[in-house]
Amino acid sequence: MSIIVKPVITEKMTAQGEKFNRYAFIVEKSANKVQIKSAVEKLYGVAVESVNTQNYVGKVKTRNTTKGMAIGRVNSSKKALVTLKSGESIDFYASI
């Protein structure tokens, strides 16, 4: 089981990566901070200073269609904000 599902690459997180050396990842809901720290260090070869986690509850979404109201649910997830030690960085675009 992989702990890190995918990195969050948005305009806001790119700015935080440049300014505060902070990166975000969508992680497994059962993962704790120690497991996330070791997974990031192993996967990207960087030194992690701190890890903050946020649990997101899936929201109920509705939309109007020609057949009537379609009701669905967005999956719940867990996001980890990882702050790296000074001098470290992660380049997500290096392998493209």
Report what the structure shows.
The protein has a single domain, classed as RRM (RNA recognition motif) domain (Alpha-Beta Plaits), CATH 3.30.70. Helices cover 23% and strands 41% of the residues. The protein contains 2 helices and 6 strands. The chain has helices at 11-20, 33-44, and strands at residues 4-7, 22-27, 48-56, 60-65, 68-73, 77-84. A 4-stranded antiparallel sheet has the order 1-2-6-3. A two-stranded antiparallel sheet has the order 4-5.
Summarize the structure.
By secondary structure, this protein is α+β, with helices and mostly antiparallel strands.
How would you describe this structure in keywords?
96 residues; Alpha-Beta Plaits; two-stranded antiparallel ribbon; 2 helices; 6 strands; 23% helix; elongated
Please write out the topology.
Elements: E1 4-7, H1 11-20, E2 22-27, H2 33-44, E3 48-56, E4 60-65, E5 68-73, E6 77-84
Antiparallel strand pairs: 1-2, 2-6, 3-6, 4-5
Q: What would the principal axes of the Cα set say about the shape?
A: elongated
Let me know the number of strands.
6
Number of helices: 2
- The CATH class name reads Alpha Beta
Q: Regarding quaternary structure, how should these chains be classified?
A: single chain
What structural class should be given to the helix and strand makeup? alpha+beta
Helix content: 10-25%
Termini separation (Å)?
Answer: 25 Å
Element-level helix/strand string:
EHEHEEEE
* Content of β-strand: 35-45%
Q: What CATH architecture do you see? A: 2-Layer Sandwich
- Could you please say which CATH topology applies here? Alpha-Beta Plaits
User: Radius of gyration in whole Å, from Cα?
Assistant: 16 Å
